[in-house]
# Entry
Amino acid sequence: MKRGILYLMLAVCLFSAHNAKAQEYRRLTNLPAIYINTFNNQGITSKDYYIYCTLFYVDEEDNVLQFDSVEIRGRGNSTWNLAKKPYKIKFHEKEKFLGKGYAKAKKWTLLANAADKSLIRNAITSEMGNFIGMKNSPAAKFVDLTLNGVYQGNYQISDQVEVRAHRVNIIEQDFPLTETSDITGGYLLEVDGFKDGNYFTSSHNLPIRIHYPEEDEIVADQKNYIRNYVNRFESALFSDNFKDPELGYRPYVDSLSMANLYVATEISGNIDGFWSMYFYKDQNDPKLYFGPLWDYDIAYDNDSRISQTERRLMVDEGYGEARTWFKQMWNDEWFAKLINKRFEDVTTDGLEDFLYQKIDSLNELLQESQELNYQKWGINRRVYHEITLYSTYEQYITELKTYINQHIAYLKTTFASRKPAEPTPPFEPQDYYYNIINVNTGNAIDLLRDNNIPYSQEDMPEPGTEVCSWNLDKERESQYWEFTKVGDYFFITNQLGLALNDPTEGVSTATTNTGTQLNVAEPDSTDLRQLWTITPQNTNGQYNLTNAFTQHTANLNGGNSVNRTAILSYTTNDRNSISKNRLWYITRTAVPLPEKPEDPTGIEMVNHNITSDYALVYSPVTQQIRFAGENPADLNFNVSIYNMAGQKIDMFNASQPFSVAQLPTGVYIVSWMTNGKIRSTKFQR
# Structure
């Protein structure tokens, strides 16, 4: 039930909105105008007590609307002490004051924005809230205000932060409560450093103001419920299990609204963002929701008490006890990832350009009004804690845009530095060559002749050529490696045509005969010495390369950064994840693998490790594999079939098709030699 309110008013004030004589009131600029006349021209001297007035609103079409029985009082904390004062107005009935799409409500605010020479910091922050998907962003409509016949300046009509449709749209509780009333919500709360109104102190000493239910409606059961709920959230947040997705704080918070509020507070550099922070809880909903954004006139580096905020985080250096919540959350990797993801999303979606466009649009809209405003108040007069004073409005606008640009760049780097490193994923090669780079030195696995000249396609290395490390050079084809999956292993071949090989003799365990230098050999994907396990380690793309036959791991000899340092077959043990000499980045180059030749017969192609003259193809209909090429005379070579144990089970001539119908289902290796090179591919029956 909602409480009815009985108004005691003077008879002369008992009017609804009606048209007034247009010639009595006019716009002063291109903006709408508001004229407020208090009863007997009383001055507005209190933030606590309303006085009656009549309000005339002149819209963009010069229509004049009169509202009687309006009440007005002061508002704000420190801003109430400034010469250009903010106000709160209250209509006799709920009014759709700003038209369709806005709240129908009695209470509205008139923000003076006196401390903000741009006049638009609150407005663009509301626009930012809309852009990033925050609910309940306050309205922002600019007007020229005249009070008791005296022009007061440019003002912003905005929503009162309260529970109502188009404001904080949550369920309103019964009043008065009954035995069946649900007191789980809604509640509108604020971490309020001023400790105004009806507030309690949380278990971690945060002053929590209860805005709804209102002070003259709330009862002890409701206050106890919401105090205990906030305390349970804090207990979970500061517990030993705070990172646990079920036992920690996450079940208590709506992650999207929390991330949106935090990101908006940091992007705006609002030093009061955690001093005054709204949040709310709805009925039968376990989550605490964060927002709306409110009071951003000293944000964007507009307060000398904490200056140069373009290179600061508000969670570290702003005001307000709510910082303790977010400081603790930053210790949770989940939160760090959430904030980075949300920041990346909104900036990638174009938030920076969006804010520039809104600033430019408001700059154009307010040109006439700001000139009139500063004729009264002075554009280069310090009224609060402004850092820099300029002689033109354009300079304040430029300063605001520059701040946004510099601060977003800073946040991008700073947030990323706080983001936990992602575990290295399993290696999945694409159709490109790769560099294999040592984590310790940054040098790459290479093939070199004795005079330190890299091999090339015109000067092929001999099988048995030893591999070594060399300064990374993304133009050296001798540093290009192709990775082909063979069962659970990888077959690693150089662009020059030879396979990475572990030549260690007489071993089959990981702990014997270590220290042999790795080399390259004629490609044979059935040879376990040429097959490698690639094991993810640590973070940021670090891997071990372990040979399938020797079970040894590729190791940079002594961690030496000198060119031509040997790559050794070395002990595999628990140091694999620690020793940087055994850790490698496998980095994709810009060079794609040669395109697979098209199958001239339209039959499914099996092999891609071939020359441009022919292709190995398979027909599911005939269950035959065969070689296809432009010149049949080139296909006069023998082809061997091996099982995965390395046993040769059959042979055929490439000029003839081979039936695989007699083979048991499984994986096989097809191997052949042409032009002195052994080529092979995996085949699945």
